[in-house]
UniProtKB/TrEMBL annotation:
GO molecular function, one term: isomerase activity
Pfam family, one: ECH_1
Protein name stated in the entry: Enoyl-CoA hydratase/isomerase family protein
Alphabetical list of SUPFAM superfamilies matching this protein: ClpP/crotonase (SSF52096)
Domain of life: Bacteria
Alphabetical list of Gene3D superfamilies matching this protein: 2-enoyl-CoA Hydratase, Chain A, domain 1 (3.90.226.10), Lyase 2-enoyl-coa Hydratase, Chain A, domain 2 (1.10.12.10)
PROSITE patterns linked: ENOYL_COA_HYDRATASE
């Protein structure tokens, strides 16, 4: 499928590299781009095992498009927030893990899209922040909810209330990113991680993601029930049989995702 603002590259082992490409506006998210992203994440094909999201040029995403938002009515703003939230929910619930390779500015909606991804890797040039209150608005693409679930309420409140931008080193310190790399290493490192994920049993990875994502939004008893259900479902897969047989025979297996 052809997109105006997305570049999709197929890498070996079922890995997709998705580049957000609105470079002149530092990849700021407008409605059109959000709709493309929604479409992309709603239709991930069966052979895909991991997706890496990055930004073209010097930014990851410098936020929602301020030019588009400036003259919104309250109901237009609500609809725009809903479009962003629905889109980021597609990312959070995507069948396969999504790695954000944060190459530069990840501000406002840019920070929010990164925390809808499963894992964040950053370049030394990455900058994170929720500058919304400095523009007279609140975060509106899930930031007030996902940020505190990711880094805890203390740091989330500090970032949101002060509107300050932090560098990659600080983002690592507060657990917002898993690792920091030199800019020219970032994509290779993200692909390396994606390949490790892709080598494992796809259904087991998918069920693990569902258990983590759905379980983190409910009470512990329900969450344990979710985990038990997914654990049981693994035993209905051929990959479980082949994986355990290979271990017992001291061999290796190539998982088929069935
Ligand atoms: N929206 C629209 N255009 C943008 C944005 C943006 N968020 N960010 C950058 N641009 C544009 C600039 O206007 C500029 O365009 P032009 O060349 O036509 O003047 C171009 O990108 C390059 O930007 P700069 O010249 O400013 O580049 P610098 O390197 O000097 O600065 C910064 C980079 C620091 C990232 C700076 O561009 C900046 O501060 N950008 C805005 C960051 C921001 O405030 N983001 C948060 C936006 S609000 C948000 O995301 C809310 C999400 C929830 C919405 C809920 C819906 C209701």
């Amino acid at each position: 499928m052809d997109y105006k603002y997305l570049i999709v590259e197929k890498k070996p082992h079922g890995i997709l590299l998705l580049t957000l490409n609105r470079e002149k506006s530092l990849n700021a998210l407008n409605s059109e781009m959000l709709k493309e992203l929604h479409k992309f994440f709603a239709r991930v094909e069966d052979d895909v095992r991991c997706i890496i999201v990055t930004g073209a040029g010097k930014a990851f995403v410098a936020g929602a498009d301020i030019g588009e938002m400036a003259n919104f009515s309250a109901s237009e703003a609500y609809d725009f927030a809903k479009l962003g939230m629905d889109t980021f929910m597609e990312i959070e619930r995507c069948r396969v893990p999504v790695i954000a390779a944060v190459n530069g500015f990840a501000l406002g909606g840019g920070c929010e899209i990164s925390i809808a991804c499963d894992i964040r890797l950053a370049s030394t040039k990455a900058k994170f922040g929720q500058p919304e209150v400095g523009l007279g608005i609140t975060p509106g693409f899930g930031g007030t909810q996902r940020l505190s679930r990711t880094i805890g309420p203390g740091y989330a409140k500090e970032l949101i209330y002060t509107a300050e931008t932090i560098d990659a080193k600080k983002a690592l310190e507060i657990g917002l990113v898993n690792s920091v790399y030199e800019p020219d290493e970032l994509i290779d490192k993200a692909i390396e991680m994606a390949e490790k994920i892709a080598r494992n049993a796809p259904k087991a990875v998918e069920y693990s993601k569902q258990s983590i994502v759905n379980g983190s939004q409910t009470d512990i008893d329900t969450a344990m029930q979710i985990e038990k259900t997914h654990f049981g479902l693994c035993f209905a897969t051929n990959d479980q049989k082949e994986g355990m047989k290979a271990f017992l025979n001291k061999g290796k297996t190539e998982f088929k995702g069935k």
